[in-house]
Queue: 2 jobs
Job 1
Amino acid sequence: MSVRLGGNILVTGSNRGIGLELVKQLLDNTGQEDHIYACCREPEGAGAEVRLSTPPQVTIVQLDTSDEDSVTAAVQVVGERVTASGLNLLINNAAINKPASPALLSATSKADMMEVFETNVAGPFLLAKFHLLFCFCGQMSCRRSAIINMSTLVSSIEKCPQNFHIVQMYPYRTSKAALNMLTRCLAEDFRKHSILVTGVHPGWVITDMGGKEAPMTPQQSVLGMLSMMSSLSDKDSGKLVDWMGNQIPW
Ligand code: NDP
């Protein structure tokens, strides 16, 4: 990495997939003075690999992004720990894709739509609203104060793929397009506090969501993303970029 990431970092959905790999690689690149808040919906759940051999720089926090009370409680726990210095980096990684694809429009319910929006959009919105981030005046960076919203190439209206199964991912794709607008609004709103806000597409990655046919491992994706994130600056706030830093049109 050209600029080391560090300080107080919060990652949502850190018990598996890309979120878990983010915590692992951030740990390899942070020092004793840094701290990672690894948030997961069920810290005691069977899949919560993140809780195994937790080093002192990691605090596991229960956080269900679809549940306002859970977000409020997590913000309180983290807020008491980071006190006046605030969070330096918030990575909104947790997300769901429902119903499991391939799914037809006819098989997609309003309940699917609402659940996906609550998790993928309302959660990141609330975490931004509670405003745990470090406020300052100066050059923006992920080291100082930033929100990274994990988005996707398939959120792009301009790049809308023709593939039938992707076209029919109604809740997921519309939620990520809404997350992109949240990114854009927050970037303008938080410019006064020098908080960088950027949407990131991690690539197509082998995880429960990405499937086994994906061309990239979580290790490769996260290596690229952390390197790219360490070089983000003012000009990247309010944009959507991929794991290599290439800009994606809205
Ligand atoms: P996974 O499905 O493997 O993991 C999703 C994570 O989100 C899990 O930790 C899950 O926790 C968590 N999560 C889901 N719902 C909630 C909730 N309500 N509250 C808290 N945590 C929740 O996904 P990936 O790791 O593949 O995806 C990570 C991010 O990358 C997502 O934002 C996704 O949209 C994005 N992305 C992924 C791509 C890929 O190819 N994999 C491609 C493009 C974007 P739990 O175990 O409790 O369900």
Job 2
Amino acid sequence: ARLVVLVSGSGSNLQALLDAAADPAYGAQVVAVGADRDGIAGLDRAEAAGVPTFVERVGDHETREDWDRALTAHVAKHQPDLVISAGFLKLVGEHFLTAFGDRYLNTHNTLLPAFPGIHGPRDALAYGVKLTGATLFFVDAGMDTGPIVAQVAVPVLDDDDVDALTERIKEAERRQLVEQVGRLVREGWTITGRKVTVP
Ligand code: GRF
């Protein structure tokens, strides 16, 4: 199966996928990595692995819709079976979702629907929850609202700060991402309403 991965930052989730895909038994290859900005470690990781990269900046387009169209075209060129947002910090638009809506995965660093948005671990810590985690889901038009594929729980420890909690979540998150993407590409999936079924 062909994976296109979208990143905006350090790309540790991308790295986990690149490492897993090095084994042919995994059943998927990362065929391209896209970003919304230059100069990020995620792009360096792709280049180090010999994977083609592309950058589509919102600021280079007249409207957000133009950007969405350009991003869609760029991703489509690589004919992905799955598109994975791995720390991609932009909400895609209508064109992208029309093209990839049933095969666009995102990983979020809390147990949704609690604490959506870019400060999940900080918000979870501030709220005082004792358990949080990571959620893998298919993206819909909302922010962190789509049908859930899998979740993994991670404890919040008494002496956690945001960095310690964020790192503990990311370890579980990477394992879940690799396992679940492998399962989806090997077994397939259907989405019915909010329910994701893997046969
Ligand atoms: C992940 O924890 C993701 O949930 C959050 O940003 C992080 C991305 O990390 N939105 P990385 O770029 O894969 O290292």
